[in-house]
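Sample A.
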Amino acid sequence: MARLTDIGWNEFHALPLEAKRPYLERVEGEGMPYHTLFAQQFDRPILERLCALANRIRFINKSKEGALYLKNVLAHKRAMLYFSQPSSRTFLSHLAACQILGVTTGSVRDAATSSEFKGESHEDSIRTFSSYFDMIIMRSPEQGLAEKMSWELSNSSRPIPILNAGSGKDQHPTQALLDIYTLFRSFEDKGSIDGKTVVFCGDLMRGRTVRSLSYLLTNFKDVRQVFVAPQELQVPDDVIAVLKEKGVEFEVSDDLRAAVRIADAVYMTRIQDEWDESKGASAKIDTSRFKFGAEELNLLPKDGIIMHPLPRRDEIATCCDHDPRAMYWRQMRNGMWIRAALIASTFGFERSIMDCGY
């Protein structure tokens, strides 16, 4: 079985994402990730196993006895939440997931409070954290950093897993997992995710959640993907190339209302102006036709759902919030459960949770 200790960094880094997957799997984990870095690590069987485990954890947690059992599952483990990019939802969701399983946590949420402010390298910081913790959950504005640190730790004297909680404009795999889990739960009594039409709208060029979820959806049968955005923010060519390679039906459009009429799920995103190359560049783009409000709500099929990775600005009107088809608040709660499932699986406790008596 391939291991990161068997390959040099430059050789590993140059591999296509799907070719990197075997190097990141857990020993005797039947394909389950050890390091979680990108969406290409998850095929349909693994997604279904993680969704089933998340369902099992949330069921066990309903009783006091079950919750206490879960808090002992990983009480012997410690996790470092290393968030050098601002975050509230992603940080708290991972923190809550750790708490459910009894994982002790530490955190750095601002590089200015760490020794990196003094000039310490990322490598030295990560090696230091690995001395104290059994897992590092990291979020960074630097593209590819989680991948590099995974290789570094695997080739160190204390290899521990890394979970990528957002890496530059590149990938956000745990967000994609909670999005898939939300779709899984929304459509489990409506024929599953297969055959559904998913509409992405907003800043698709720079939205790492869109890139990751779009890829995960290719694991399901006959899912049509529709990308609605201003030309300047339309889905990038690398995403389209993957869809073409996998034979996925897709459409690129600038007509949100037409797309909503045929949507099973509408995935709205905000403008990612923190990535503007020049200040105020995004404000010059006309986004007025790419917002979801009362008119769009009336056009959405009765079994359709609205999703959003949050935070939200004005791309979804607050009048939508109490409609039963609005799933974005449930998405947030789903994230806690699926991340708990991923953490438990990473440490090899999937089977003990699935088979427990609660």
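Sample B, a different protein:
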Amino acid sequence: MKKLFRRLSGLCCLLFLCSAYSAEPKNVLFISIDDLRVDLGCYGAEHIISPNFDKLAESGMLFENAFCQQAVCTPSRAVVFTGKRPDSVGVIHLRDHFRTKHPDILTLPQLLQKHGYRTQSLGKVLGTGDSVSWTEPGMNNPNPRNLCTSARKYADPDMVNEVQAEYDAALEAGLTGIKFERAARGPVMEIADVEDEGYYDGRLAIAAIAALRRLKDLGDPFFLGVGFTKPHLPFNAPKKYWDLYDGIDLPHLTNDFHPSKAPWFVLGRSAEFHGYDGSPSGTVPMEIAMNYRRAYYACISYVDALLGKLLDELDTLGLSESTSVILWSDHGFKLGEHDSWGKSSNVELDIRVPLMIRVPGEKGGVGRSSALVELVDLYATVTDILEIDPPHQMEGISLLPLLKNPNQPWKTAAFSQYPRSVGEDELERVAWDLMGYTIRTERYRLTRWDSVIVPGRVEGIELYDHLTDSEENYNVAREAKYADVVEELSNRLDQGWQGALPR
């Protein structure tokens, strides 16, 4: 009888240990969304249909005040995957590659490889080619017609042929550089009556589901990066998602003007947006602007549906209890606010991003955090969750403590930057006249535009008081009552991110 009792006790202990182990976060599903601002139901945007984003937020930790370090894709993603800020990693331009200045730096997936992980990238994740970061091949996107990149973004056959014809004509004309890229952009939006797989992101979701199944069968711990492209321009989505917004009272623009008393150069020229066929020059008429906004919202709902398929498959495969899910956007986007379209600035709409983290087991937490956090924190967060030492000095900090106690004291500021070349097209620039450094505290945003040409010279200052002006419509930097705030925040900007770390 005693032997039987000991055997039963041992079996119970073994089952307990297996259960505890299964709840430990072993895998990482790392989901990036391109150009997604905080227009989601879980962030208070009641006009957006985003049930799967909202469900993920409810099952994990939603960060209400997360900020990217530069509001354009390549620099932002370099920050995430190296744990270094733009100036440190040397990625400021879309064409920069972090390997140029740091050939031996270990990216996050590259580090995980050294610890036995299979790492795979599907879609737009890291943003630049870096084969050593991944042990598994990316998505195979067949192109039997040899279509140009722009033509593949559309689904209507006539539109595909039209964009391809523009590309062929530009090629024959000998155009190069930006002029060549813009010669075959296609229209700002397309709403085609197709299934989800009619556009790239729908096919990407299928590939991601297949990857999850394969990775489970292989049995090794994995890091799977899935990078959805929508709602990035062009605003293309299946018609059924456009139809979701029939009868919904969409919010109208209330601040379609340049911020009062702000320097003229702070927002750029919306060059990417205006590079698409048919986009109005200058201020976009309200009726057209509302159509574009609705198309952007349709893209959000489209990606939301694909996200739901991916998370459902995680449940079906029994991987949810062993897989951390981290969802983030590389930057925000302006939809006519400040008379501007796109990203590429230091305003709140461009820098504030959605961020959700769901970690299984005791390490995870459910709720919302209003702490100031940054995308540069993600590298340290993943290594902390997986109990792996980071390979180099991080310039962000782990968010794991906030998952356990979202209301604890945290960073006192978040930092971002954006360069500006005032004398040439912002997409053609190869050197900068100005660097706009910005600091965001709980109440204020201060942006200082430092001259790159004349060290020590300041070409402009912006200060926005979020207590009275959450849309950043009024630059109060020159008002006497804010003089002490400007001085204090300028000093803190000089101290940098280290001076804002939690004690």
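Observation for Sample B: The radius of gyration is 23 Å.
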